[in-house]
Amino acid sequence: MTEKVIGIDLGTTNSCVAVMEGDAPVVIPNRGGYKTTPSIVAVTEAGKRLVGHIAKRQAITNAENTVYAAKRLIGRKWNSPQVKNALMTSSYSIVEGPHADVRIKLRDKTYSVPEVSSMILQEMRVIAEDYLGHPVSKAVVTVPAYFNDNQRQATKDAGAIAGLDVIRIINEPTAASLAYGFGKDLDRTVAVYDLGGGTFDISILEIGAHGVFKVVSTTGDTFLGGEDFDARIIDWLVESFKEEHEIDLRQDRMALQRLRDAAEKAKCELSSVKETEINLPFIISTGRNEALHLQRTLTRQVLEGLTEDLVERTVDICKQALDDAKLGVDEVEDVILVGGMTRMPSIQKAVTDFFGREPSKSVHPDEVVALGAAIQGAALVEDKHEMILLDVTPHALGIMTFGSYFEELIPQNTTVPTSRTKVFTTSRDDQTAVKILVMQGESKKADENELLGEFILTGLRRAPKGHVEIEVTFEINTDGIVSVHAKDLETGQAQSIQVTATSGLTQDEIKSMMENAKDYMVERRHDEEFEGLKQQAESLVAEVERLFPDVERVVGGADFGRDAMSKAKRIVEATQAAIAKNDTAGLKEQVEQLQRTERMFKGVVARS
Questions:
Q1: Which of 86, 302, 337, 535 has the smallest CB count inside 10 Å?
Q2: Confidence of residue 161 (pLDDT cuts 50, 70, 90)
Q3: How far apart are CA 346 and CA 308, in angstroms?
């Protein structure tokens, strides 16, 4: 039997896991029956790790040690503007890592962002394994289309730490289009408008009648999403409270977490009602020990005013995507809405106005990305050829040239796999070596782009500047791995590099985190087994104790009856002791004895 590959949508706000069942992809519900799981991780005072709904429920009382929206920080450099923004608005502690990367402090331990994300991926893996009834090791994980190579590599590292072989990283809008067009024999041009909790993407695709999915253009903003809409509501609440009481609620972490929860809830409610009440009693105490309350009415109209520019930003990015695709609005035949934020009426209206058509309602905005990832996973291992996926590189690739300029070799939105070559000349007299800096981005200034790697081509012949010609070749394969080759055209002297983007983690760090994750899984499975036995034992104890009076009435006068009764009492006491000591092996033994006692007691009562 072919190994199952799970598809995971690792979201900013929620995550979702799916798998192919026969010829159709299905979303796997978690233990609570929910099809999505909050992308939230927390560490309790006792050092216990919580993930998902259970972490979200305790976020207010444990705000400093509860991480949300980690995806916005993954693969980022410490000095990036996005990290500076997060530092000002997060209720948890963000610190600089040893490789100019981002780390998160929870209790007395510091975690890397891929490590925090791995905890969410591990939870998705557990949900899938519980559903399938066997271990899972392979996954296709989705990322925003506009993620750069470092962010993609960080996501892959998160998968590895979670014990998953991530066989492909796939763009979220592309995954959505796979789920939308799978098995339908469509032939049309579609736009996927994907506005989630933290990121925005727009991709234009051509879906061919023979299962060909060709991305024509993709663009986006990896720091634009529901979190920003929530932040506008929080600002609105904080400013009005400050005017009234001269107190800034942002300075109190618990108050800030309560505001976050209230803002998200109000935003969701305003998608279906015209106004909502935000009521936060005892939000903060003053120095005079007087408790203050926050109560405001937020209307849909006010929310739309507060977030109008954010919606407009997505429309501007849509214009860019159409320009890049060299298509007119009228050439787009269908618009697919993806991500929870697309439920907001002002977003639906903006999309309808821009594209001149009502968006398609045929996909579930929270589940479609995971479904597409599962379809891609099955296609990769089952070698099904009825589906061909042609994606593009979301950012231009090139090298830094003299004067710190960025010279583009592979333009943005080039279909991958691809290869491009360009000839450069030396910039100094008698130059015998040249440093090649491989970069990714859209700015003409090299320092505004992302550095992916560097290498030195040595052994050049001495010549006046401009007389040594160096041929530089860039190649990208289907996995998005970039290789760069440089050659002195006269001497044939050559040097190449496979550009491995960095997540800010060393291989040793990743290995150590993988071991910790394995230990956690062993401990978790042990805890789950103990919990299962404990529930079974408690139910058997209750049944045995319920039967005591009847058994005593029937056989209590006989010696063997009294022996049976006292033995049963000893078993109940031993069971309670095993529960108190968290003794799984001992509890297993007691459960077997309780089952025998229960059968015997029921037999005695039935014969009477």
A1: 535
A2: very high
A3: 8
196 touches 142 (CB < 8 A): no
What SS3 class is residue 393?
strand
Measured between alpha carbons, how far is 44 from 64 in angstroms, rounded to an integer?
Answer: 10
Residue count (the chain)? 608
Q: State the catalytic residues.
A: 9, 71, 172, 194
Residue carrying structure tokens 């072919």: 2
Residues with Cβ within 8 Å of 48's Cβ and at least 6 positions away in sequence, in order, are none
- Where does residue 142 rank: exposed (0-12), middle (13-18), buried (19+ CB within 10 A)? buried
Confidence class for position 3, pLDDT limits 50, 70, 90: confident
Cα distance between residue 517 and residue 594, in whole Å: 35
Instruction: Report strand pairing: 138-143 vs 5-9.
Output: parallel
pLDDT in tens, 548-568: 888 888 877 787 778 888 888
Residue 331: CB atoms within 10 Å: 12
Enclosing H/E stretch for 229: helix 226-245
Contact 212, 390 (CB under 8 A): yes
CB atoms inside a 10 Å sphere around CB 340: 22
The residue with tokens 């929080």 is 234
Residue 173, preceding peptide bond in cis (omega within 30° of 0): no
Residue tagged 């279906």 (tokens): 272
Compute φ and ψ for 308, nearest 5 degrees.
Answer: -55, -45
- Residues 83 and 344: their CA atoms lie apart, in Å, by 27
* Residue 233: C-alpha distances to residues 264, 265, 599 (Å): 9, 11, 61
| Alpha-carbon span 407 to 435, nearest angstrom | 14
Give 89-117 pLDDT, tens digit per residue: 899 999 999 988 999 999 999 999 999 99
List C-alpha distances in Å: 32 to 27, 35, 53, 62, 506. Answer: 14, 9, 9, 22, 37
Q: Residue written as tokens 């990714």?
A: 440
